[in-house]
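Suppose a colleague, Dr. K., hands you the sequence of a protein chain of 808 amino acids and asks what its three-dimensional shape might be. Before reaching for any lab equipment, you can write down a predicted structure in token form. Begin with the sequence itself:
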Amino acid sequence: MTRIDPDTLEEVLSRVQRPGRYIGGEMHAVVKEEASFRVALSYPDLYEIGMSNNGISILYDIVNRLPGVACERVFAVEADFEAALRASGLPLYTLETFTPLGRCDLIGFNVGHELLATNILQILDLGGVPLLRADRGEGCPVVMAGGAASSNPMPLSDFIDAFFIGDGEEGIVDLITTLMEARARGLRRSDAISRLGSIEGVYLPGAQAAAPGSRARKRVYRGADLADPPRPLVPLIRIAQERAVVEVTRGCGNFCNYCHAGFFDLPYRFYDHRAVARRVFEIVGNTGYNEVTLSSLSIGDYPRLVELVNGILPGLTEKGVSVSFPSLRVDRGTLPIIERISGVRRASLTFAVESASEAIRVRARKSLFLDDLVEIVRHVRARGWKVIKFYFMLGLPGCREHDEAGEMVRLLGELHRVGGRGMDINVTVSPFVPKPHTPFQREPQMGREYFEEAVARIKRGLPRSIRIKNHDVGASVIEGVLSRGDARLGEVIAAVYREGCRFDSWSEHFRHDVWKAVLDRVIPGWEEGLGRRDEAVLPWDMVTTGFEAIARKRAGEDAGRFCPGRLRQVRGEIDGQRVDDATRAFERRYAVRARVRVRFSKTGFTRFVPHNDFMEIVKRALRMAEAPVAMTRGFNKRERLAAGYPVPLGVESEAELVDIDCFDDVGEGFAGGLNAFLPEGIRAHSMVPLPEGDSIMASVAVVEYRVTPRHDGVGRAMESALSGEWEFVRKTRKGDRRVPGAAAIHSRDKDGAGSIILRLYAGREDALRIDDVVRSLSGLADGEPADRAAAMVKTNQYRLDGEVLRPL
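The predicted structure, expressed as tokens, is then:
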């Protein structure tokens, strides 16, 4: 099977809850049907999470610029889609060309954290790729893994042919070039993989593990050019992080002893603020996102932060685009920036305290001054902020010598008194997990009992108005086992996968009992691995970062001699006048000077895009087209758009009507001009002006559908039902309720092609969904997809003028 037939796939998609995850077709997707080398790239989680990963976006762009090479995407799938694939005998496929995974040349996983391990096996298994590298022969894809969790490759070494350690911007090109050259020479698969071992950053678990002392040095990207693509993929459905992302710095110079990213991403590098500003506006213009995230481990340390803010904030403010700095340290120096980028919303402030105990913070080399924290809370309360969030870790080194739970209760109690009743305090508590290549890599991880007792003490000691949320302790224990484990864990991962474990980082899916039972069986005494690691050779010692000396020095220093210095201050002032001018320019969008109604179609696979996501696609298109769309006032400003009754998922439409309020007049070509900014399958067809007060929801009385039976038997069954006293049985909480067909169906016809034209009432108590009507008329059982019986297309919407239908 070279490609999966779309018609076959449609039948599978109709069975699942969120088919939009599995259809591809996003804006800026690259489809290279004739490529000679095909890469499947994956962040092994659900589509919504994987598509939010910036590393995938960067590598996708780089690989697709290579001639003759196609980079496509594949993600983990929910249980319903896994069951549907298995039942139909279809393999998991790439989103761009529906290529079965086993037909690709290279599969690359970005393993962001350890609890993604079972998802990797699901993807390989559903794709028809043998799970164990030892079982793969000629014709199988080369399976690679990189990302943060690959800093210790041993737990996944049974399943991965080659690991890439470090930054992949240049390394991915070297890998593909080497594999293509090996194939051109007719080399065997094993020989091609062996050649990868000569590339900086590559670790081969088969060959190099057998060579004592063999090391893989982390690859470092030192390019001056921004890696973020100017035209990133824009999903058809909502994802976890719906925003433009631009990387400002990489690495971190704060050297907090517990931070894996801070040490593993060294050296600290940053990009030119003018280049960052240009890329911000490019991505916003090419995606239609209304939020920008400036990515950094600690953006407050960026030396040109104020210049950067002055370069982007006025222009983004005028466009109605917000800016977020997820890693901006809150202190007296950064508050002016935070208040400027937050405008009048005053939504929430976030403080990463890590520990309320000064002695523990000193040992961790966390620079934070609690007296400053109290003053900041007092200051922001007076300025109108309503919510403050705090992040703490439990179990950091020193926790046995100091009462970290008691210190946390005292600190939060003081902050609660300062904040008063008008301020909400939300607290997230996470267990400390020691990570490889950090100064704390040999430190013990506290057991489950310690964490649960500490969290219980904290909750008992604080008012209920302080919301405490704690990370799943069992999941943190397993994360700790995987982060510092050895190759024996391969058998454990395979066994828990066979027991049904998936999505272990999701609390609703994590099954600690299964993990514990398998660990007890395969590695008796596994808990000892959570203790202090004093062995001479650690399982991850084959990976070198080039910064081991710094980590060793930090680990060996006397924590009592460390005095955290004052945090680096942000220099310069925000150009408040330009921001104020931009705010006034934006406010012209509050006026409504014209109203129009645009008719859209939604066909093909986009019929699996839910209504709310369809409306987001329309909003993004309007932003990219720089359309004069009016905005609402208030806390959350939104475009003034309204749509009619949503078409059911899986039903095509030729008549999606969207009313748009505009702050300026629009030209006759307005609707057609939107098509350059819409994905394939969604098109704008026409526009009509609207009088004041005309409302689409109030106007629609009847919706017309064209129903085409899949075969003659269905057509005869539907005609028979319609010609009799057909009624629909609606299940309600109060029991079954019968709806006569005459109360739901305004009228019906047949067209020359054998389709049935049904016009259903809308907005009434007896109104029915078209898919429910088709299911009932054709005799399908409850829950069966209606499109198995007939294809349904929404063709028109009407108002009722007496008894006369008037098209809208």
